[in-house]
Amino acid sequence: MFDLTKKIALVTGGANGIGKGISTMLQKAGAFVIIADLDKENGEKVAKELNGEFYDLDVTDLDGIEKTVDSIVESHGKIDILASNTGIFPQKFIEDMSEADYDKVLDVNLKSSVFVSKAVLKHMKKANYGRVIFTSSVTGPITGYPGWAHYGASKAAQLGFMRSAALEYAKYGVTVNSVQPGNVLTEGLKAQGEEYLEGTKSIIPMHELGKPEDIGAAVAFFASDEAGYITGQSIVVDGGQILPEEPDGIL
């Protein structure tokens, strides 16, 4: 089950953190993984480890997106799987937020998802097959966190786009789904400090932070033929974090 052999997978933001976990699990399932990222050093390193390829891509460059996708299709004949994962989460409280702060987060997290998927979907439509998976979040669609209003807005909007995209492309054999991570132990999360990490563990019923590979496993499921009758849906991977009605509900 979940055999992705001979599938071509494009992972944006695949050089680090959750993106690396996604890339690793897709390759483990048999896919040929292509990483597109601004981090050339780590991107090339991960691509080499996974016997894949690396493309230097700024996902806010719409012309660059089109050229990258077209180049991949020219080289490989197709893109079967898109894991649209690139995202940033700089903390900025609302009263301190500038238009530039807001625009940057929405451009990287939301606009890039829209236009990377647009570039890939036209090829999937021709092939009558495709799997698009967005990395959303629990923050925004389900929960909120002080200082991440712009981030939460971008991740909630991703799910709105996902549902309409799923409807537009269902008849072409293309599914569009999302994974909503909770707190996953990445370099970005570590940068929040030990106090934040320990406090977060205490509010997760499993008392553990997620691993990037946990998200990658969910993406590999959505990418599989076995998930072919699932579209427009999102799965939360958070160790049960959003379940308790109140902190005292955690054992």
Automatic annotation (TrEMBL):
Function noted in UniProt: Catalyzes the irreversible reduction of 2,3-butanediol to (S)-acetoin in the presence of NADH.
Enzyme class: oxidoreductase
Transmembrane segments: none
Keyword Oxidoreductase among UniProt keywords: yes
Keywords: Oxidoreductase
Reaction catalyzed: (S)-acetoin + NAD(+) = diacetyl + NADH + H(+)
Record EC number: 1.1.1.304
Source organism per UniProt: Nosocomiicoccus massiliensis
Designated name of the protein: Diacetyl reductase [(S)-acetoin forming]
GO BP annotations, alphabetical order: bile acid metabolic process
Homology family: Belongs to the short-chain dehydrogenases/reductases (SDR) family.
GO molecular function: diacetyl reductase ((S)-acetoin forming) (NAD+) activity
